[in-house]
Amino acid sequence: MCGRYASGKTPAELAAEFAAVDRTGGAAPGPDFNIAPTKDVPGVIAGRADQERGERQLRVLRWGLVPKWAERASSRMINAKAETVIAKPAFRAPIKYHRCLLPADGWYEWKREAGGKQPIFTTGPDSGALALAGLFATWRDPAEPQSEPLVSCAVLTTAAFGALADVHHRMPLLLPDRSWQRWLDPEVHEVGDLLEPDPQLYAGLRSRPVSSAVNKVANNGPGLVEEVRPDEPSPVRLDRS
């Protein structure tokens, strides 16, 4: 799964890197090295209004997808499995019509070791952002139909392979830049082939142990993604209860 990631670039930097127009209206979150579910995150979508159709846009999304038909704004659906996304009621419409990219420096997983868990950060080979495949949905409170809509998202995950499988059995689905346009295009409804991970893209990733300070969502800053020696600090202890 993907339950924590980092995005350390400004909205202007992300808009430039993804060839997008910043449509966040100044509401985009700043650099965040400890993104957790229910936080606002930057996302890239394709414009749907007539005057914006096809325009690649940077928008603010809340992590934890709330389906359009939900009675309340529960944000438990932070991930969607690529293998089953087409069959799941909450994701059937988004996978056809509402796909997005979630820019990330990398993501965290906790590797089980003797007596504990070690946080591992996986990132790309250079300073470029990774594009996590995502879905989004727009929800309005049924009790207040005129209220401001909530636009939320989920990260697509797939089975880990190679060295990443030694860290965790799931990993985010990453998309190469050559697939961005098709993935975002709301006129393209069949994207089953893009749900298969690109081995060449994953081959360039690098994983490193990082500080257990990332365990607390309140902690933030670029120091969280810096490599630490496995014995400093010691791995996080497992709950024995």
UniProtKB/TrEMBL annotation:
Enzyme class: hydrolase
A single BP term in Gene Ontology: proteolysis
Alphabetical keyword list: Covalent protein-DNA linkage, DNA damage, DNA-binding, Hydrolase, Lyase, Protease
Region (Disordered): 213-241
GO-annotated molecular function: lyase activity; peptidase activity; single-stranded DNA binding
EC number: 3.4.-.-
Compositional bias ranges of the Basic and acidic residues kind: 226-241
InterPro entries recorded: SRAP, SRAP-like
Pfam families linked to this entry: SRAP
Protein name (database record): Abasic site processing protein
